[in-house]
Amino acid sequence: MSTGSDLSKVLVTGGAGFIGSHLVEALLARDVRVRILDNLDPFYDPKIKELNLRQLSAAGGDLEVVRGDIRDRDLVERALSDVDAVVHLAALAGVRPSIARPHEYWDVNCVGTQSILDAIAKRPGVALLFGSSSSVYGGNEKVPFHEDDPVDNQVSPYAATKRAGELMCNVHHRLYGNPVWCFRFFTVYGPRQRPEMAIHKFTRRIENDETVPMFGDGSSERDYTYVDDIVAGLVAALERVDGFRIYNLGGSKTTKLSELVTQISEALGKEPKVEHLPDQPGDVPRTWADVSRAAAELDYASQTDVRTGLARFVEWYRAARAEGVVK
Asked: Are the CB atoms for 80 and 74 separated by under 8 Å?
């Protein structure tokens, strides 16, 4: 399978969202026909997704938007009726909200994923890329995290649903033969990032002269990955997908929480007001991607360092804030 003329149409679930909208943009630029399936869930302000859709439509290309829920099996079957591949990014996201709403997370993330799998079972030539998460590694102490590491100790319902999704995809491939690749994303950031995520939240609070909540002593570390790098990995996968495989997509470098706040404040040109708070349930001390498999098999390499990526995010944030899209 390859992008361009050999890949006629791709369904992107969650295509109005953060990662999804960037992927759709990249596919349209390659003259791939794209159908988005998204219910514009109000987990965060839907006007952000509406702006994403307007910008995608204005960019040109063959784009169709279907508004609906991935748990609607009839709708999913119709949306899949004439596509060559599916990139399944629709999900309820976030570790902390999942602790308060575990049933809802299971319903959307697992039942919804099964709807996608059921639909492609009838068309074994259709490939699936499944958006998983680095959270499946839980509190693993061995770093960097490799795809072959044990993943039996998730620490949040969200992480458990993503691991369950990977297992469901593996079973489906064995039963029905569809090519299925799962991607463990490591803390993705960049323009259009969800408002509750740390970089967006810290940027908003510093810009508005509000306190920045820092959970723990600031020593926790994350592997932050710029969204363009994630998209490059997914596009490369669409050119190659076959069989069943799991890949890490990350920056393969860690940044401490305290360093992140400092770099955001420098990008904004403003001093942060930090409020130190206790560690939160569900948080892990460190994430760090071993991307050697993706490098060898997808020619993947992170191209954007955190300082550069934060400057780009701040530029987007200030423009979106001026338009009243974000606070």
From this structure: no
CB atoms near residue 49 (< 10 Å) = 24
Average pLDDT over every residue of 301-308? 97
Q: Is residue 233 a contact partner of residue 81, using CB atoms and an 8 Å limit?
A: no
pLDDT tens-digit readout, 203-216:
999 999 999 999 88
- Domains, the chain, with CATH or none: 4-186+227-251+288-302 (3.40.50.720)
Which residues fall within 8 angstroms of residue 144, CB to CB, at 6 or more apart? 223, 252, 288, 289, 290
pLDDT band at 6 (very low <50, low <70, confident <90, very high): low
- Among 47, 25, 84, CA closest to 323: 47
- Name the average pLDDT for the chain: 95
Coil vs helix vs strand at 126: coil
How many Cβ atoms sit within 10 Å of the Cβ of residue 155? 17
Residue 116: count of CB within 10 angstroms of its CB: 27
Give tens-digit pLDDT for 218-247: 999 999 999 999 999 999 999 999 999 999
Of 164, 103, 107, nearest in space to 135 by CA: 164
pTM of the model: 0.96
Written as one letter, the residue type at 130 is: F
Give the C-alpha separation, 200 to 100, whole Å. 22
SS3 content of the chain, % helix, strand, coil (to 5): 45, 20, 40
Over residues 247-283, the pLDDT tens digits come to 999 999 999 999 999 999 999 999 999 998 988 887 8
CB burial class (10 A; 0-12, 13-18, 19+) of residue 130? buried
Question: Helix H segments across the chain?
Answer: 18-29, 46-58, 73-79, 95-100, 102-106, 112-121, 157-176, 198-207, 227-238, 257-268, 292-298, 306-322
Please say if 176 is a catalytic residue: no
Q: Which of 44, 105, 158, 247 is catalytic?
A: 158
